[in-house]
């Protein structure tokens, strides 16, 4: 297990930080259906995040994230209390669902 984690960290462009930060996720399923879910991040980096959701999502789709992100992890809106950013769903770990 430790080897897998070490290799995973070596392959990443940015180190992920474990967290339990609250996040609001908004997702548009189709033209008439959307959902909004409160969840928590379990990992975060300047270029990615890990989130466990109750709703199903599809890789390649966008979701709007709203969270109280630390300024050093932001790309803009450094002084805003809530950070809103569009995220591209790149990977879904169905084993942990």
Task: Describe what this molecule looks like in 3D.
The relative contact order is 0.19. The protein has one helix spanning 2-11; strands spanning 17-18, 22-28, 34-45, 48-51, 62-67, 83-88. With 97 residues, it is mainly beta. The protein has one helix and six strands; from the N terminus they run H-E-E-E-E-E-E. The longest helix is centred in the first third of the chain and has 10 residues, at 2-11.
Q: Which quaternary structure do these chains form? A: single chain
The low-confidence parts are 1-7
Structural class: mainly beta
Measured as a percent range, the helix fraction is: 10-25%
Molecular shape: globular
In this structure, how is the largest beta sheet organized? 6 strands, antiparallel
Order of helices and strands: HEEEEEE
Q: Give the end-to-end Cα distance, rounded to a whole number of Å.
A: 20 Å
- Radius of gyration, Cα only, in angstroms? 14 Å
**Beta-strand content estimate:** 35-45%
What is the tally of beta strands? 6
Report the average pLDDT across residues: 87
Total helices: the number is: 1
Brief synopsis:
This protein is mostly beta strands and 97 residues long.
Topology, element by element:
Elements: H1 2-11, E1 17-18, E2 22-28, E3 34-45, E4 48-51, E5 62-67, E6 83-88
Antiparallel strand pairs: 1-3, 2-3, 2-5, 3-4, 5-6
Keywords:
6 strands, single chain, 97 residues, six-stranded antiparallel sheet, disordered N terminus
